[in-house]
Amino acid sequence: MTPTDWLWVLHPALAVLLVYPLLGMVLRLASQTRQRRVEKVKLPPTVGAEHADLGRWLAAAVVAIELIAIAVVIATKTPSELTPGRSGLLLLVLAGTVAALVALWRSREAIYRASFALLCWAGVIGLGMQPEVWRLSDNPLDPAFWQSHFWGGIGLTGLMLFSVAARPEILRHLRWRRLHISANALAALIFLAQGISGPRDLLEIPLSWQKPAVYACDFANKVCPPPAPAQP
Ligand code: HEM
Ligand code: HEM
User: Fold this and answer.
1) For the chain, which ranges sit under pLDDT 50?
2) Which of 44, 81, 208, 228 counts the highest number of beta carbons within 10 A?
3) Residues with CB under 6 A from ligand 2
4) Is position 170 within any domain?
5) How many CB atoms lie within 10 A of CB 225?
6) What SS3 class is residue 198?
7) Is residue 228 part of a domain?
8) Does residue 26 belong to any structural domain of this protein?
């Protein structure tokens, strides 16, 4: 493992160590919030607030690990294409995306919450659309699109940011609560899919020093050039 390989491991490691344990807690508290409200099960009145507080951390963690993955890919894949001008612009978008997340976390008025959530999502999408970031397919009519780890991540980020932005409305209005449940039932499924497509990608991406040999293979026909004869 070279230092570059370790950088590529950062994102999967944080997903396993940070995001999925948080998801478990958020899901457990979500079910308790509902049991307490609908089935009148005796549970502490704090479960709802704790669900939303940890939910906010979950959303921030998802954005953070995506930004790490995308930044690592852009910085290490083809460094020769990173001119100072382009690097500066990309760093500016990265800083803006993080600033939008912080601002979303802090703002109270609905219009600001909606705007900062959209800005943050746009930042993640903008960075993700850079040519270095490989995606299975960009066409929703193509089955490969629905197996894409990248597009799953983008969809998930949108749903998480939507929940954070609409927190006061979910708390106050039953309609928003229902919308939140439907949106996040979908999010839970996407989390499941990311947990499968991520390890799949990890298996497919070779270590940096193996890349020239592995990328010489024909991926469509699943054949590789014969190994070079051993030196006498
Ligand atoms: C996978 C992620 C999530 C799932 C499956 C989920 C699911 C749920 C469920 C089932 C409820 C209870 C609804 C009811 O009472 O009928 C709920 C409530 C709520 N959720 Fe989430 N949620 C998720 C993430 C989030 C996030 C990221 C936030 C953002 C802060 C959030 C904010 C809230 C709020 C404010 C409530 C109302 C709490 C209360 O009644 O005190 N949720 N959620
Ligand atoms: C919440 C769950 C996750 C989300 C939202 C997510 C999202 C993303 C995004 C947006 C990218 C950048 C685009 C790309 O290069 O494909 C990416 C890359 C990647 N993800 Fe994930 N991911 C998640 C979980 C995982 C898990 C559990 C693994 C493996 C155990 C994983 C492995 C990878 C790998 C190998 C890459 C390639 C780039 C790199 O490693 O830095 N991901 N992910």
Assistant:
1) none
2) 208
3) 8, 11-12, 15-16, 19, 62, 66, 69-70, 72-73, 128, 133-134, 149-150, 153, 156, 191, 194-195, 198-199, 201-202, 205
4) yes
5) 9
6) helix
7) no
8) yes
